[in-house]
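<amino_acid_chain>
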Amino acid sequence: MLHGLHHVALICGDYARSRAFYVDLLGLTVIAETHRAERDSWKLDLAVPGGGQLELFSFPNPPERVSRPEAKGLRHLAFTVADMDAAVARLEAAGVAVEPVRVDALTAKRFTFFADPDGLPLELYEG
């Protein structure tokens, strides 16, 4: 029935800050950017390497979402990287706090966590 994951949609608190984070820092490619004046809202479609999309939305005064302690619902988004050390260095050079790199006990792959500008937990997974 399902053929794959098409997109993940995020609502951001500061559109310009989130756009810069996902495009300039993480390097996602802009597919389309639309301003919806009647809703005072932006929609940014971003291509994720390897397939799928990330959609960023902005709305006036979005409510905060509980993410810690571990709440039901979305836990985190994970992105694959080829070089963990280079990816961590790039994030830290941009002032992003990154947790110490760990090794997954089940897969023996290295991973770490950091947060986007709105505090959404993001993971880097070396693949």
User: Anything to note?
Assistant: The domain at 73-127 is CATH 3.10.180.10 (2,3-Dihydroxybiphenyl 1,2-Dioxygenase; domain 1).
